[in-house]
Amino acid sequence: MKIIISKEMGKFIYSLEKQTIAKVLRTLDLLEEFGYKLPMPHSKKVSRNIFELRTRGQQEIRIFYCFYQSRIYLISGFVKKSQRIPRKELENAENKYKTLVINTLDKI
Q1: Is the pTM of the predicted complex or chain greater than 0.85?
Q2: What's the rounded Cα separation, in Å, for the pair 88 and 74?
């Protein structure tokens, strides 16, 4: 499956430490290869349409993504600092998913 990375997400990924960037890119390769079948500890479903790409290391990184029209869209990302997903981050990802769907429907 093809992964779509927005400029915003590209900036986020390349703002991380070099070692973390390498881990994120490796996890993205796994996501591209396995898609829906990517298991824990790399991926976890967090809501109806949103999945979490999990990168462990000195920096714990979470990237929210979704599957839409045979593609994988990276929606948002953050550096994890606590056990739970911050509600604000999940709401932000869900809003971006809705925007993606609406914008796509407008083009039809």
Answers
A1: yes
A2: 17
- All structural domains of the chain with their residue ranges: 2-106
Question: Per-residue pLDDT tens for 56-83?
Answer: 888 899 999 999 888 999 999 999 888 8
CATH architecture for segment(s) 2-106: 2-Layer Sandwich (3.30)
- Helix or strand run (H / E) with residue 75: strand 71-80
Token digits for 63?
């990237």
Mean pLDDT of the chain: 89
| 87-100: burial string, b at 16+ Cβ within 10 Å, e else | eebbeebbebbeeb
CA distance 76 to 92: 8
